[in-house]
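Appendix C reproduces, verbatim, an entry submitted by the partner laboratory led by Prof. M.T., so that reviewers can inspect both the input and the predicted structure.
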Amino acid sequence: MIEVRDYDPAWPDRFEHLRAEYAAALTAAAVPFVSIEHVGSTSVPGLAAKPIIDVDIVVAAPHVAAASAVLIGLGFEPRGELGIPERWAFWEPDRLAGTNTYVIVAGSLALRNHLAVRDTLRASPELRAEYAAVKKRVGATAADIDSYGAGKNATVQRILAAAGLSDDDRAAIGASQVPVPERKR
């Protein structure tokens, strides 16, 4: 079973605290960044979600290593791309449990995917309701995070189509949807 909760209005505040910490650390290290984005289901008001805040630190490609070093300095452990090009994942330190933080290249398909899902679900009550129902149903029966991701894939593909992503982009996203395994602490 995968825990999926009804929307919590505290999630945006939690993101803002993360955004402020990351921005301060990046600025102190003189690492330029494009933006720090709240992505994933907790970024969509009214959407049921796993209670994990997903954050994309968006940088130009030449700044990936420097941004990653800042996260390592904050206690994160690097995990690599995990099969998703131009997106680097990190294990969070204990003090930031319940977060997924990524360094992601501006303009990349991985970023376009995250923003397209977020923005489309924010704009479409119908797709938001459909996705919430799927997440709750699949979460209640999924044996693990892999089956949870697979169970949502058809709906995610509909969301991406509604967002206007091309067939090729949607196929590439579908092929690289590698769920992040939960960390054993």
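Residues 11-28 form the longest helix (18 residues). Additional entries are available on request from the coordinating office.
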